[in-house]
Amino acid sequence: MQIAVNILHIIFCISLIVIVLLQSAKQAGLSGSIAGGAETFFGKNKGRTIDAMLSKWTAVAAIGFLITSIVLQIMMNA
């Protein structure tokens, strides 16, 4: 069981790092160079822009990372 939680924890950790690096900053960062003109594909719908989707996935990855961290700590103490 602990091995499965460790694998999930590593997956959440790596995905959190990648998602944060893909988000654009004020200077359009790495996301601007990779996405290019893909932002215009979504139009003016703010809920479906690349940055909005990355923001949602960042929250999901962060919650998963937090939950697996707590579960691993409980498993270590038990």
UniProtKB/TrEMBL annotation:
GO cellular component: a single term: plasma membrane
Transmembrane helix is among the record's keywords: yes
Main location (coarse class): membrane
Intracellular or extracellular location(s): Cell membrane
Source taxon at top rank: Bacteria
Membrane topology field: Multi-pass membrane protein
GO biological process: intracellular protein transmembrane transport; protein secretion; protein transport by the Sec complex
Protein family membership: Belongs to the SecG family.
Name by which UniProt lists this protein: Protein-export membrane protein SecG
Organism: Acetivibrio clariflavus (strain DSM 19732 / NBRC 101661 / EBR45)
